[in-house]
What we know:
Order of helices and strands of chain B: EHHEEEEEH
CATH class of chain A: Few Secondary Structures
Structural class of chain A: alpha+beta
Helix content of chain B: 40-55%
Number of strands of chain A: 5
Oligomer: heterodimer
Radius of gyration of chain A: 20 Å
CATH architecture of chain A: Irregular
Number of domains of chain A: 1
Largest sheet of chain B: 3 strands, antiparallel
Strand content of chain A: 25-35%
CATH topology of chain A: HU Protein, Chain A
Shape of chain B: elongated
Strand order of the largest sheet of chain B: 2-3-6
Helix content of chain A: 25-40%
Number of strands of chain B: 6
Distance between the termini of chain A: 25 Å
CATH superfamily of chain A: IHF-like DNA-binding proteins
Largest interface: A-B, 46 and 51 residues
Amino acid sequence: MTRSDLVQKLAEKNPHLMQKDVERIVNTIFEEITVALTRGDRVELRGFGAFSIKKREARSGRNPRTGETVSVAGKTVPFFKTGKQLRDRLNGKDASDGDDD
Amino acid sequence: MTEHQTERTITRADLSESVYQEVGLSRNESAVLVETVLEEISLALIADDTVKLSSFGTFAVRQKNERVGRNPKTGEEVPIKPRRVLVFRASHVLKDRINQKHTETKA
């Protein structure tokens, strides 16, 4: 499924909305998640999952081909943890109860 | 890492609010749409489909085989059943945007 497939599906389910509005809705959601992560915020969508960032310290690595030591700059990487409910649903369990992370 | 800004947690309510501001649907309908987006993605994944959101990332389901695990507290061996797990791979655009911001503030 691509972004446009997703837009298509939502448009079918919401015939009263213009396709361009559906596109804006989808874009708004993922843009807000992106912007939150660039601020260092966490995005927690219960039942689905949580997006966060993890900081990686600068380290000295090695070029595996030459054996030469190179310094690798620190960086921040995005991270996603699947929510409990989705994890269960992927495995055929319908977890409509219980707490979630 | 030197100065610690206060981190916020963004939730569905924030996403609904943005949709409300951006598109001009009612607050309630905005909330329903946010939920529908997440549900459509979930359903695709449950059906073993990969979800590719350009300039954001890819969600894919991976099959894990059975293996022997260990209860870290008791040291007891426990079988871990075969299962399906979700993996998210951030796109380069997302990674770059996150890093740009953070290297800027660091400098």
